[in-house]
Amino acid sequence: MKIGVYVCECGSNIASTVDVDKIVEEAKDLPNVAVSRVYKYMCSDPGQELIKNDIDEYDLDKIVVAACSPRMHEATFRSVLEDKGLNPYVLEIVNIREHVSWVNSDKDKGTEKSMALLTGAVHRSALMKPLERKKVGVIHTALVIGGGIAGIQAALDIANMGYKTTLVEKTSSIGGKMSQLDKTFPTLDCSQCILSPKMVEVNRHPNIKLLSLSEVVAVDGYVGNFKVKIKRNPRYVIEDKCTLCGDCLPVCPVIAHDEYNQGFSPRKAIYISYPQAIPASFIINPDDCLGIDPLICTKCKEVCGPEAIDFDMQPEIIEEEFGAIIVATGFAPYPIENIGEYGYGTIHDVISGLDYERIVSASGPTEGKILRPSDGKIPETVVFIHCAGSRDPSKHLPYCSKICCMYSTKHALQYKHIVHNGTAINFYIDIRTAGKDYEEFYQRAAEEDKVIYIRGKVSEVLKDGNQILIKGVDTLSGETVELHADMVVLATGITPSEGTKEMASLMNLAVDINGFIREAHPKLKPIDTAIAGIFIAGTATGPKDIPDTVSQASGAASKACGILSQDELEIEATVAIVDDSLCRGCGMCAEACPYSAIEMQVINQYGHSTRIAYVNEAMCKGCGSCAAACLNGAINQLGYTDSQILALISALGGD
Amino acid sequence: MSYEYIKIGSEEKAFIAKVEEISGQNVYSCYQCGKCSAGCAFSYKMDKTVNQFIHLIQLGQKERTLDANTHWICASCFTCTVRCPREIDVAALMEAVREISLRENPEKVRIADLPKESLEKLPNIALVSNFRKKTG
Fold first, then answer.
1. Do A199 and A227 belong to one domain?
2. Looking at the structure, do residues A193 and A322 belong to the same domain, yes or no?
3. Most A-contacting residue of B26, B29, B33, B77 (CB-CB within 10 A), to test interface
4. How far apart are CA B81 and CA B90, in angstroms?
5. Facing residue for B49 by CB, picked from A395, A457, A473
């Protein structure tokens, strides 16, 4: 056996605190080492060539590289081995950068530790065996969860690339939060006008199957082969038959709050959430309707010409298989009634940002006139309070919700466009306009539309007669400000939606401290999750504006198609294997497995039925938890077998 | 603002450390939103608003901090503490500055010398703070 040892200086990253020349010399005396070299940047092309030449010249069969973390360049050096016809799994990487030089300033100790790690690696390397990557088939269909703008964009992109896509939406229509917005910053184009063409396209696209009123209830399987159960709730109106004629509306005796208009207008128990809704069909809300038990009321059914109403619809469970999943489950506004001092829910004319969107919208309850909720009068002074819930780690949200500076600026500007003589005041802490044309939009609001900006967080909002008293401060002049307003709009922060939380727990996706789904890497893998084949898009991962959401959705679609376009996928060879003769069927490995890759099976062994562990290699991530948990030593992780690890430990310990 | 004003040398650092030691607060948690000043019932009496006062502490401006009347006007009602989004106990900062002021100049006010009428008008907190200087 011939082992080649390669030590990287990583510029001065490693060489400054590790005597690389010394460990290269000492490594020459280790067992089986045929050649030992140092190079400034081993990952560079000349560095790789160095290894390749040595493989030919010295006829090497194992390689040990002492450099940075294998997370950085394991793939690079594995491909070097493959190029030279060696198995990529006989490569061992010793991390002397993150584990030694970056965390240590004493050169002698750094050198000593590096040498110890290198010695262990060489001993382990001698026991390493070639491994084969297995292949699994791929289902060429994608699942997109969530029908907001992120889900719509992702589904359209996948469908346009030629793959079948199922789009699952919890509510009666796709469109999400964007459908409730009036205009969008910084261009002030109408939200519905830019959204509805995409919604129509979803509806008409031959590659998209839209499941509204549906929820994902179970996800099993692995990349390329997810098995998903979807629960479809009844609409009580047959989508294909409903012609939207509206004959049912005048006869329905029930009046409820219209959720689409944030409760500011009434709707019937049978309704369509808004005119452009997709699927274009009425729905009966079973919580409001008297007649799901038809003895009480069947008025809508009696007048429905196309006979579209069916009170007997039942929830159904659909089971399907998908190759990739995109989670686009969106956000929920922060419950601002929690901020007691701002009076939301107790003072009638204190409203949320989303409430304001409906009030200012031409399709909203006031048909675009800005009228305050308490008495329907035009407010002469409107105060917009930024950071309502955001940037408040003591009681509310610790993070910046990113979009509120811009939408409050937009709100104030819209108010000035409609109520020319009115006064619009923004109380802010910092104005954050990091987006294309955002700063210009903010300047326009101040310069042209005379929106007033006061730097200081409002302390309290109180009712004073039919007006509202705002107690604030102008930190720039150092004076307190008390003023009366007719309406207050709170710039509500963003939190992960219930759907986002449910999907994260259902699929075992990691979440951050605030409940948003965590990216596989915050910078370099912002669309991947820790689970292969599951991608994320939009506000499910954190606050985002529409352009960022759409870009991320397209990115997720492209990532998903990278899987769907394969006929088979190679899976990592460093998986767990079970020695059937040693396994006693206790199931501790299955419990220890964080990826649900192990299940207990009953097999016939020498005429007896015995329970043993079975590893699904496609789901196994090679973490080694099962191998550590197994009391009998029946599970070994390929590439990290007990004998290899013991060789490494004994080399570290000296004997 | 002169260059000297933003110099944070050993004197400035010592003052910041003292305020932080007495109050148990990190003065750099403050991001100057102004909610403390906005909610303070006595802001109009203060020559530096509460957030300006904290900013002076952040810059280690001992003299300017002690010269302000902010910490003496403060009634320790805790509105600022309760509302601070960054969980700073602002009232504790005020108390810390009062302590520093009194420890350095214990004879600033001699209660025995005050006329009875003045004593009756003084808020309790002022008297308590004044006596506390004796505790070191």
1. yes
2. yes
3. B33
4. 5
5. A473
Which CATH number do you get for residue A97?
3.40.50
Question: How many contacts does A have with B, using Cβ atoms within 8 A?
Answer: 75
Same-domain check for residues A116 and A152: no
Q: Which residue of B has its CA nearest to A461?
A: B39
Supply the pLDDT for residue A654. Answer: 59
Beta carbons of B86 and A429 less than 8 Å apart = no
pLDDT of residue A214: 98
Q: Is A340 within a domain?
A: yes
CB contact under 8 A, B38 and A455: no
Which member of A394, A455, A478 has the closest CB to residue B49? A478
On the 0-12 / 13-18 / 19+ scale of CB atoms within 10 A, A160 is: middle
Please judge whether B39 and A387 are an interchain contact, meaning their C-beta atoms are less than 8 angstroms apart. no
Q: What is the mean pLDDT of residues A429-450?
A: 96
Question: Which of A459, A462, A482 has the highest number of chain B CBs within 10 A, making it the mutation to test binding with B?
Answer: A459
pLDDT band at A389 (very low <50, low <70, confident <90, very high): very high
Number of domains in chain A: 4
Looking at the fold, whether A60 and A96 belong to one and the same domain comes out as yes
State ipTM: 0.80
Judge if A145 and A65 occupy the same domain: no
Please indicate, yes or no, if residue A51 is contained in any of the structural domains: yes
- Looking at the predicted structure, is the pLDDT value of residue B1 above 70? no
The predicted pLDDT at position A595 comes to: 81
Residue of B nearest to A342 (CA): B83
Least reliable range by pLDDT among A77-91, A360-374, A601-615: A601-615
Which pLDDT tens digit goes with each residue over A6-15? 999 999 999 9
Based on the fold, state whether residues A366 and A453 are members of the same structural domain. Answer: yes
pLDDT tens per residue, range B46-75: 999 999 999 999 999 999 999 999 999 999
Please state, in angstroms and rounded to a whole number, the distance separating the CA atoms of residues A456 and A62: 65
- Nearest-neighbour CA in chain A from B19: distance (Å): 21
CB atoms A479 and B38 under 8 Å: no
Residue B10 CB neighbour total at 10 angstroms: 8
Verify that A322 and A404 share a domain, yes or no. no
CA distance B133 to B125: 13
Residue B133 CB coordination number (10 Å): 18
A396 at interface of B, judged by CB pairs closer than 8 A: yes
- Structural domains of chain B in order of their starting residue, each with its CATH number: 10-105 (1.10.1060.10), 109-136 (no CATH)
- Provide the residue range defining the domain that includes A27: 3-127
Nearest to A392 among B32, B44, B85 (CB): B85
A456 neighbourhood in chain B, CB within 8 Å: 33-35, 37-38
Tens digits of per-residue pLDDT, A130-181? 999 889 899 999 999 999 999 999 999 999 999 999 999 999 999 999 999 9
Q: Give the DSSP letter string of A89-148.
A: GGEEEEE-TTTTGGG---HHHHHHHHHHHHHHHHHHHHT------EEEE---EEEEE--S
Cβ neighbors of A542 (< 8 A, separation 6 or more) are: A399, A402, A512, A514, A516
Residues 6+ away with beta carbon under 8 Å from A538: A146, A148, A149, A150, A151, A328, A330, A544, A549, A552, A553
In this complex, is the C-beta atom of B69 within 8 Å of any C-beta atom belonging to chain A? no
- How open is the CA angle A443-A444-A449, to the nearest 5 degrees? 125
